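Crash report, auto-generated. Payload:
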Amino acid sequence: MSGLSPTGYDLPIYDYETPPELSGTGRGRYPVVIVGAGLAGLTLACDLASRGVSAIILDEDDTVGVRGASSRGICYAQKSLEIFDRLGIYPRIRDKGVTWSVGKVLRGQDALYRFDLAVGSRSAQPPFINIQQFYVEWFLVDRIRELGRTDLRWKNRVTGIRQDEDGAVLTVETPDGSYSLHADWVIDASGHASIVRHALGLHTKGELGEDRWCISDVRFRKDLPVERWTWVEAPFNENRAVWQHLMADGVWRMDYQMLPNTDPHEASRPEVAAARLRDQLGPDVEFDLVWVGAYAYRTQLMDDFRHGRVFFIGDAAHVKSPFGARGGNSGIQDAENLAWKLTLVLNGQAPQGLLDSYNAERRPAAVENIAVTRRSGRFLAPRTKVERMFRTAVMDLAVHHPFARLLLNTGRMCVPHHYGPSPLTTGDAGQAMPNLALDSRSLGGMLRGQGAGFLALWCPRDGEDGLGRALSHLSHEGWPLHVQGVGADDRRVLGMAPGEVMLIRPDLHLAARLNDADVDQVRRALARAICRI
Amino acid sequence: MRTTPNIPDPDAFYEALLDTHAGLPATESHALNARLVLLLANQIGDQGVLLSCLETARDTAAHRRNDP
Ligand SMILES: Cc1cc2nc3c(=O)[nH]c(=O)nc-3n(C[C@H](O)[C@H](O)[C@H](O)COP(=O)(O)OP(=O)(O)OC[C@H]3O[C@@H](n4cnc5c(N)ncnc54)[C@H](O)[C@@H]3O)c2cc1C
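Recovered output after restart:
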């Protein structure tokens, strides 16, 4: 499945089928409808299906990726890979993609700064894998079909929505005409230009950045290390920034910073792109351009990611510039966050109030991601002479002085958000647990399966400790909980003390960490984590 | 942020500061100052103190502009 031709990729085409509403067999009303089969929408559908929840997913297109364009996202972060591991597509991503952990910031030929994200990483998944976004979407579609719980409706374009207290009605256009679809819950995952958002009259605060970039995806024969290289001032790009990164099929992503007033058509003319590459790779390297395209980076943020019966995930809710790969990766985490909450509510195990915590947790994550990417953007495109002067000072000092290397900001790689202030968190927990490899299986492996369960890991005080038995009672009381005692080896990996309980959410975030715990404390923390108080 | 005296030999320091800039064209002096700010910031290494210093430096200029 190479799927690559010299000019682009051969993407799968999915069959359009006349929807039941138009062939007269429709049920009329459905619990969950997802608008948009991009990274966020597909992850949500797959996550729900893996938990036993059916959904309809509508997409205006009939393939993965953006037709006629190359890949947008290429870097997938550890947290996303852990989610994909739980969903069952991680092995395909690992086998197809490029695993990397070393990044360098260069000046000319010299590295000013080198980092290795594998240092200190404790997950069963690597810090990053690079792979074209459409492969991830493709694997998700395959998996969703395998799970067999989702109605994937291609060439179904949403053109309007209205809602009342009990649900929403979508207007959908197809090659056979239009129809209405009633849903208890709608999840808008239709990207930055969401029609759902417009139709509901909701605002998104945003700006189109001045900074222009031009992507060239290219294959060539030259041995380069599999590392992320960034130049702040590349001599082969008129002293502007450049990214160089490998993805699947031996395709390199080169991203060139342009002048703000650059004509995008001129910058992406094949001859112009080839001349840039020639300067970068040297005169003797043969290369094939796979795709060239110019972008202006944008920022957008909705005030509230929930509006009545409608939730917004991924780019529909928030958009940021690509520095640090925070766009797609945060949409994938939005999807995971909403999936377990919807599952508990639909299964009657948690009140609807739990769904409000989606906005309470994911909007601050988006705010943080936007702030972080803005800082990188400002470093890369100084607004004034003084800003440029400080940047030069940083680069000059970085040659000999380690402290200055940490000020070089060519993007801070995506990390999971810390849900410390979340209403679901007890005490100072909230951080994401890595997918630790434990004695019998990985932490994420313990959370796999139907429904959405929490995991209580408990560390016995002595042989007689009744804590485990008391905790097991909670599951019998109907709380969504698996209980697992930890052995000596795992105790060390987890850094747990006797009598301690770690309450881990279905998304591997820590809900509570209780010292010298008793069962009532655990029940309270669990009640808080699913809003059953 | 400390604003009471802390430099052991103020005159000698001041002289060294001027000597460091001696003979440099203005643009190079500015660049030197930028490097100096970063080096000194790393010596301080305390975010609260650094932010107070930034604020004080900025406010001081504002006061001067407002003087009759
Ligand atoms: C140059 C560039 C590089 C990037 N690099 C990275 C990276 O390395 N890592 C990363 O994580 N992210 C990266 N991103 C960001 C990432 O591509 C986006 O954040 C991601 O695609 C958002 O996913 P989404 O599912 O929210 O929206 P989209 O991918 O935009 O998907 C929306 C889907 O909705 C469908 N749709 C739209 N309107 C309708 C409608 N009315 N009815 C039905 N269907 C509809 C569309 O067909 C589409 O399938 C990059 C972005 C750019 C531009």
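Post-recovery validation: Residues A 35-41, 58-61, 72-75, 133, 157-158, 189-191, 195, 215, 295, 314-316, 322, 325, 327-329, 331 surround flavin-adenine dinucleotide (CB under 6 Å).
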